[in-house]
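Example 3.2
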Amino acid sequence: MSKVVMQTRIRLARNLKKYPFPCRLNTAGKTEVAEIIIDAVKNSNSPLSKELDVLYVKDLTEAQRISLVEQHLASPEFISDSAGRALILSKDRTMSIMLNEEDHIRLQVLRKDFNLKEAYDTADKLDTLLDENLEFAFDEKLGYLTQCPTNLGTGMRASVMLHLPALKSSKAISRIAGNLSKLGLTIRGAYGEGTEPEGAMYQLSNQVTLGISEEAAVENLKNIAQQLVSQELQAQKRMSESLDTQDKLWRSLGILRTAKLISCKEALELLSNVRFGINSGVIDGVELETVDKLIEDIQPATMMVNKNEQISPRDRDILRAEILNEALR
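Structure, written as tokens:
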């Protein structure tokens, strides 16, 4: 499964009972809500609380903010406004809590590969940690109350990030997306709604949160994801038998090993081809983990954060090529 499923995420939306939604709060109100939640985390007896740090959006550089989005630790909407917003982040960067995005709390747990149950269990523990000291807005009929009605009920979004180069190449994604919507699921770009699937990376997630339990939603996502993985692997097997495909995959690796300048978009497409090559057995001598780490490390803002300096677009293309050359040589 890890060949196709790159990452698993569980996200929970929660709001405090005695406060309006963030869109109805001024900066002082948002700051008050954020501090209440931060105090609840710090004062918890759970071992999880010792693993969490607090980042205030107003204190972060633009590169640091964008890098959080590149690493799927925060949303583009969250970093667009610093007023009263904070991020509670685990030291290993597998858990994050956005404060005052669309809801007071957007809690998420990330796991590598296809670890839905593990991600859900951790998210549930983190939710319990918060519930010990906070009173959430909850209705007996509607479940957890959220700013957007589409999140009412469990307030949970479960998702898996899938690498689907063969299905994308065969133009099967449009047909699949239409069928998924009938099953209460949606598929879109890796960074969520409205984003392009660069590097053939897609996010599959549940749409229905009302009238269904969290466990049932996770199980439904798991079953559909397994079907997509099977379709992708079958398509990869067929395509990889073609000499033209094999040539394309090896050429992609050759470019990554020797390029002197390369954009992020081109690098992601070529890394997607190499990943396809590894999965299908066409390319050997390169580890899947190396490719997946490169997909994270060559993002523009993340490179600047790692180097701790501002870097011009052209110099980023040079640095990106150097990183790729070194890792794949």
